[in-house]
Automatic annotation (TrEMBL):
PANTHER family referenced in this protein's UniProt entry, alphabetically: FAS APOPTOTIC INHIBITORY MOLECULE 1 (PTHR13088:SF3), FAS APOPTOTIC INHIBITORY MOLECULE FAIM (PTHR13088)
Subcellular location: Cytoplasm
GO BP, one annotated term: negative regulation of extrinsic apoptotic signaling pathway via death domain receptors
Cytoplasm in keyword set: yes
Annotated protein name in UniProt: Fas apoptotic inhibitory molecule 1
Signal peptide coordinates: none
Keywords from the named record: Apoptosis, Cytoplasm
Gene3D superfamilies reported for this sequence: 2.40.128.180
Cellular component annotations (GO), alphabetically ordered: cytoplasm
Amino acid sequence: VEKMTDLVAVWEVALSDGVHKIEFEHGTTSGKRVVYVDGKEQIRKEWMFKLVGKETFTVGAAKTKAAINIDAVSGFAYEYTLDIDGKSLKKYMENRSKTTNTWILSLDGTVCRVVLEKDTMDVWCNGKKLETAGEFVEDGTETHFSVGDHECCIKAVSSGKRKEGIIHTLIVDDREIPEAVE
């Protein structure tokens, strides 16, 4: 295995189907550019006359658009920034925390990462979109699904405060799971 000698940047991106690792190699003498997503090579350009520019690719099951921007800072120093869905990684993650809820729990000795996409009410567990059944209940809605032999439910209840909006709670086997901060 060739050692990644020109590795200049590594990012971790939390998407609904999991946390993805993006690695970027940039040969500042040869102009070589290599992008790896989760250890798999996505782009390889051996010789680039232009040392600055942009590499675009996709990440994860939903093929989320990503771009690495290469900018010269001074002399032979370069800055590398990652954009996800047209936003800086920081902006993307801030927006994502408003549009999704994430819970991390251990079931049958396996760590499960459950993600709710609030706009679609899609539920993901460890990279797979789950079959769900939604129902209206007295104080809101319940989205039922199972993980292995475990009965799971995400309750959506109004907070009663306009600023807070709806509060989503994950219940697994009648146990409330605290939300994770990614």
